[in-house]
Amino acid sequence: MHPDTAAYNQSQAPGDQAICDRLAEVIDAALPEAENKIWHAHPAGFLDGNPVVGYSKLKHAVRLLFWSGQSFTPGTAPGLKPEGKFKAAEQRYTAAEQVDTAQLQRWLADARDIQWDYKNLIKRRGRLERLR
Fold first, then answer.
1. What's the predicted TM-score (pTM) here?
2. Which of 23, 18, 78 is nearest to 53 (CA)?
3. What sign results for the dihedral spanned by CA atoms 95, 64, 109, 76?
4. CATH number of the structural domain spanning residue 95
5. I need a surface site. Which of 13, 26, 45, 89 has the fewest CB within 10 A?
6. How many structural domains does the chain have?
7. Residue closest to 25 by CA, chosen among 58, 2, 57
8. Enclosing domain of residue 76
């Protein structure tokens, strides 16, 4: 786990820290090639400079976000809900036991294979293009 991610996780209340630690462990194992960093104050994973997955503490839950989640393979994305005005999708957790590791691994496989170009969103004036 990246030291900044570990520090973020440790700054959470014990129940939320357990969720964050589980998410970080599965993300790191499934996407070892991803660059992990704190982005907009939350842990995020990037592939080729493009954000693909991240999580953050909300008031009553920890939100797992996939930037291209609305485009994931039909059948692999149950549980993900659309988030925002682009292609992102989320899942929220209130306990570490709610994290379905097998489902999370399927989502992470899709995150590697299905990407929209968020890296160049500003340059394209808010227009997304599919990378893969």
1. 0.87
2. 23
3. positive
4. 3.90.1150.200
5. 13
6. 1
7. 2
8. 3-113
